Amino acid sequence: MRKQSIVIALFAIGFALSITQACKKSEDTPVTPAPSEFIADNNTFKSFQNWHLHATKNGVDPAMLKTAHGGDDSTSVRKIYFPTNNVSSSNGQYPLGTIVSKLTTWQKNGGGSMITAMAKRGNNFDPSGNNWEYFVLAADGSIMVDNGTVMRGANLMNGMCKGCHASAATKDYIFTK
Fold first, then answer.
1. For residue 79, with 0-12 CB atoms within 10 Å meaning exposed, 13-18 middle and 19 or more buried, which class applies?
2. Are strands 132-137 and 112-120 parallel, antiparallel or unpaired?
3. What SS3 class is residue 154?
4. Closest CA to 80 of 52, 116, 115, 55
5. What whole-number distance in Å separates Cα of residue 38 and Cα of residue 114?
6. 151 within 8 A of 130, measured Cβ to Cβ
7. Cystine design at 40: which of 44, 64, 128, 156 (Cβ 3.0–4.6 Å)?
8. For residue 37, which of 119, 121, 104, 146 has the smallest C-alpha distance?
9. End-to-end distance of the chain based on CA atoms, in angstroms?
10. Are 45 and 77 in contact, with CB atoms under 8 Å apart?
């Protein structure tokens, strides 16, 4: 009986110590707050063509983007990429840090290509555009610089990006999802 009491006492002490350590760890471990802003840089869109190809659209763009994304004729091919296959909205909103890129190519008039992108920035970057930032990218995925102007912002191309994407506001400014 005495041996059984000692075993029970040791078990109780061990259990109490493990709970004390677990509580101490949770009190000592700092909680990292969720970031309030995502700022894309020249590495954000690198290798975007290795991301998940969400959709390929051919021909004239039904969203009537015309030349905003490059060629908009029967030869146009638009490929929309997300970093992973499981990018989705919650309650109609994409999370902070959501990124998407679009490669448009065309053959008409000598052919060409254009790469555009969006990033959900947050932190009241542009509340009227639901905090999306727009980009024009170079072939390597870096943010394009044109005549000294970095091709990024809420009002990129004189607000054309946000203005057109506003027609998809019910889908958080993304046409393809």
1. middle
2. antiparallel
3. coil
4. 55
5. 24
6. no
7. 44
8. 121
9. 69
10. no
Nearest to residue 166, comparing CAs of 177, 156, 174? 174
Distance CA 118, CA 144 (A): 13
- Tens-of-pLDDT digits for all 177 residues of the chain? 555 555 454 444 444 445 455 555 555 667 777 779 999 999 999 999 999 999 999 988 766 555 566 667 889 999 999 999 989 999 999 999 999 999 999 998 889 999 999 999 999 999 999 999 999 999 999 999 999 999 999 988 888 889 889 999 999 999 887
The C-alpha atoms of residue 152 and residue 33 are separated, in whole angstroms, by 27
Global pTM value = 0.78
Q: State the alpha helices, DSSP H only, in the chain.
A: 2-28, 160-165
Nearest CA among 142, 176, 168 for reference residue 56: 176
156-171 in b/e burial notation, b at 16+ Cβ within 10 A? beeeebbebbeeeeee
